[in-house]
Amino acid sequence: MASNKxxxxxxxxxxxxxxxxxxxxxxxxxxxTFARRTNSGRYVNYSRDDLDSEIGSVDFTNYTVHMPPTPxxxxxxxxxxxxxxxxxxxxxxxxxxxxxxTKAHLMDKVIEREANHPQMAGAKGSSCAIPGCDAKVMTDxxxxxxxxxxxxxxxxxxxxxxxxxTGGGICPGCKLPYKNADLTDQADQQRPNGGGGSxxxxxxxxxxxxxxxxxxxxxxxxFDQNQWLFETSGTYGYGNAFxxxxxxxxxxxxxxxxxxxxxxxxxxxxRPLTRKLSIPAAxxxxxxxxxxxxxxxxxxFLTWRVKHQNQDxxxxxxxxxxxELWFAFSWLLDQLPKLCPVNRSxxxxxxxxxxxxxxxxxxxxxxxLPGLDxxxxxxxxxxxxxxxxxxxxxxxxxxxxxxxxxxCYVSDDGGALxxxxxxxxxxxxxxxxxxxxxxxxxxxxxxxxxxxxxxxDRRRVKREYDEFKVRINSLPDSIRRRSDAYHxxxxxxxxxxxxxxxxxxxxxxxxxxxATWMADGTHxxxxxxxxxxxxxxxxxxxxxxxxxxxxxxxxxxxxxEGFMDLTDVDIRLPLLVYVSREKRPGYDxxxxxxxxxxxxxxxxxxxxxxxxxxxxxxxxxxxxEAMREGMCFMMDRGGDRLCYVxxxxxxxxxxxxxxxANHNTVFFDVNMxxxxxxxxxxxxxxxxxxxxxxxxxxxxxxxxxxxxxxxxCCFPRGKKKNHIPEENRALRMGEYDDEEMSLxxxxxxxGNSTFLLxxxxxxxxxxxxxxxxxxxxxxRPPGALTIPRELLDxxxxxxxxxxxxxxxxxxxxxxxxxxxxYGSVTEDVVTGYRMHNRGWKSVYCVTKxxxxxxxxxINLTDRxxxxxxxxxxxxxxxxxxxxxxxxxxxxxxxxxxxxxxxxIYPFTSIFLIVYCFLPALSLFSGQFIVQTxxxxxLVYLLIISITLCLLALLEIKWSGISLExxxxxxxxxxxxxxxxxxxxxxxxxLKVVAGVEISFTLTTKSGGDDVDDEFxxxxxxxxTSLMIPPITIMMVNLIAIxxxxxxxxxxxxxxxxxxxxxxxxxxxxxxxxxxxAKGLMGRRGRTPTIVYVWSGLVAITISLLWVxxxxxxxxxxxxxxxxxx
Length: 1125
Fold this sequence. Notes:
Layout: H1 5-9, H2 13-20, E1 33-37, E2 43-46, H3 48-54, E3 64-66, H4 78-90, E4 92-97, E5 100-106, H5 157-165, H6 186-190, H7 199-209, H8 212-220, H9 225-231, H10 262-265, E6 274-278, H11 281-307, H12 314-335, E7 342-346, H13 348-355, E8 372-378, H14 386-397, E9 406-412, H15 417-428, H16 435-439, H17 452-501, E10 535-536, E11 539-540, E12 542-548, E13 575-580, H18 591-606, E14 611-616, E15 620-621, H19 626-635, E16 642-646, E17 650-652, H20 665-676, E18 688-691, H21 692-695, H22 738-741, H23 745-750, H24 754-766, H25 794-803, H26 827-837, E19 841-844, E20 852-855, H27 860-878, H28 893-904, H29 908-925, H30 935-959, H31 963-977, H32 980-994, H33 1028-1050, H34 1056-1072, H35 1074-1079, H36 1089-1109
Helix pairs in contact: 2-24, 7-24, 11-12, 11-30, 12-29, 14-15, 15-17, 18-25, 27-28, 27-32, 29-33, 29-34, 33-34, 33-36
GO molecular function, one term: mannan synthase activity
Membrane topology: Multi-pass membrane protein
Keywords: Cell wall biogenesis/degradation, Glycosyltransferase, Golgi apparatus, Membrane, Transferase, Transmembrane, Transmembrane helix
């Protein structure tokens, strides 16, 4: 094993502390022999004293640890044993949990049909040649049989282990001892296979010792020519020290010239990965000036309103003034964070040059990008169709990111076999991306296509995808028929056993639990179709199944046997894992937040990507390079202080008019861009790229270097000496100093998994930006992440099962400081707030091509319930310790105002409801909110309205939204404010005062099953109590208009000014509620309900006019002249 000096002397503090807290763990010293390999290939042994004295030398930095052969440690090729172990793990389903043994169930097949991808679990292969064993032979990344003996005797993993451990290492075929088969490549030789410390510690040590010359260059900014010549095969050429013997540095074996040229290595200017694009001053300056003008005018107007009471209707004046004061305050909270909007751009070409181009620190040009874990969460296959989830998985597998650095984890919180098999079908599909999105495009698919093969290939891919959709849609019936058949077989077996045991006795009916059966003929360990003990939605074991095993380090090209020629295509796929956390009665599983935290822990043990991308099951990757664009921000200078990169949410399947503002463009293109100019946008629940250590609750690097207290210059805090190693100084938490953090606190925070604790410094190191510039203070050396990954073993997956158990979070800080935060239905906003409160920053990444696309509820009832959930979470935030009023000094004042607005905006509904009834009350009473419509009032009203319109136009200018989108947002603001927001305030108060818990149902994800009408859900009217306030407001205002007209017409001295004021504001309310009224009409093609309403209004108006023309007897004067007072 290759290691370094630091790793030899001491392990990482976190792992040391975790071990120190377990007194029951015995320490067993290993007897090892240390040796150094010379240039001739001979090993020179070192004693411990010699090693300690010479280990500091650069020449002897790398050493090898050799363990002598023992009966349990035969001289077999370690790469073979590790490969067969990984193949065994990837073909097994691991289950376990609280008070239960972790079991590995070898899966012959995971779906009915045969798996055809070599990485997939249950892939086809040869059978073991050992008599009585029908297991499959282990295979490599291409699907070829992995045979440990030169005689090519076919043997499975279990039989191979038995032959090595109990059979003396003798091959059952040729009866000769196993020899080293030539199955390893260069990557396998570099992989650490032994030595002290845990797997994570060895990996961290190897990364830090990888390519010392890169560290020298990153620290000085200059390239050390002598050291490069010493460590590589470089030699002096024609006046240049950077030429290799073949005349090209980092080229392929054939010298194809794809390596580094001379000018690429000499004096290359440093270029940033991202740029901040400021809004033009011609737009931003007038925008800020208008905000200032409107603030001043509002202040003057409110002062005038307070001083000039309406003595005829003080109650009406009082209610209107209170509402207007609140509206002004609410508008100020919403507008102030918009003072500094910014745009950002990325340079993917620079990213490729820095991380995937041959350099002196990365001669082979392997990807130096950090690992990335993608989380997809689903809970109910009935409300979240499996086809939607499968399309999301397909888009992840096709993402433009190095597949060896990418891993996808699917959390099935319902533990449904339907989701499991749908995921397996997606893994077995040969077409990746999102075919459903591609084949539903309106444009001509053959535009600019000239090759005839394209038509044939497209037709075949479409047919394969159509067959895939049919298989997914038929899965519920297939699982049910299969379970019924197996159940009938079990009943027959039970009856036969009963007859054999009871010859002449009266037979009783046999009762057997109706289980749900998998494709391989075994019980499904998750939720059964017919619930039973240990197999219900809230009561089942934890499940982990590796659907696609980790890809090999080298490209794996396909063949031309199928309908497409893949000989030049790398067919490797990312790691794909199915996870269903353990659930037991009596435990609070914390809904989606708990499921995400389980994925954080499981992924840390299995792949430990430095970054995490979380997606809802209905949000697929629309831009295959979105991950790279997000990584540009994380890997740029200063990126180590970014906790997450938030992408905007874009939606498909929305009606063309966007009746209910489902696109939400005002929020995603105006508010979020504005927050990007402060500390960053809020986290919105999906489409977010996280830094793993930020989720772990650590502070950003160097956030505590500044003095604290009321006056840092007068009363500076004395600095304590740091004894923590340099690599762990970024792992700090605010309430603990460095020394306390490195003691027994960490295991109590994260739990008792040493695997998890050891992974933390590795994730932190991998997430650092490149130290390719002297200004990068907390960077890592280039080329440090080009080492191969660790192979999966059964111990690793078993540990992952342990950390997703229902008891693991007990007495830890998961959900309170670490991971997704519990206690709110909007855990996303709270999680992002906690990170900003610790001093982290975030950025908003708007890509030219939409990064992700998803679905949104276009039905009115579903939309209102979605808004209700968001608003209820905001009310919970306001009444919790996550209120922005209690934020730390690390949060900027404008960012604090933005978070304060998040918690306050639902309370605007109380004043909005009152204000919507004021026009009707004015018309009913014949009074108005002011004494008379004088010039001062009208001028103030005109200036306020004009400034609002101008601000809207400028926001449209710098954000790129349309005027129609802005108006739709205004309309739904009133619809949601008078319905869902009011209900959220009431429910939030009930929870705070009476402790009544709030439960919400999942938002239904449409699978697009109705082919006759794409927008069928839009016209479906589903009654909900949330509709009562808006309907009441509409009815009251319509009746008030009629009453106001009739009173004015019949009045002896008509008050036309008050009528116009009341009617104007009533129409303002009705115009905002028009989409709501349209939603009550029903489907197109039928007679809308609104027609009958307007027919009644027209009839009433005509009747009133008729009465005015032909008045009743005894009244000769109707109405009067119209004039303003």
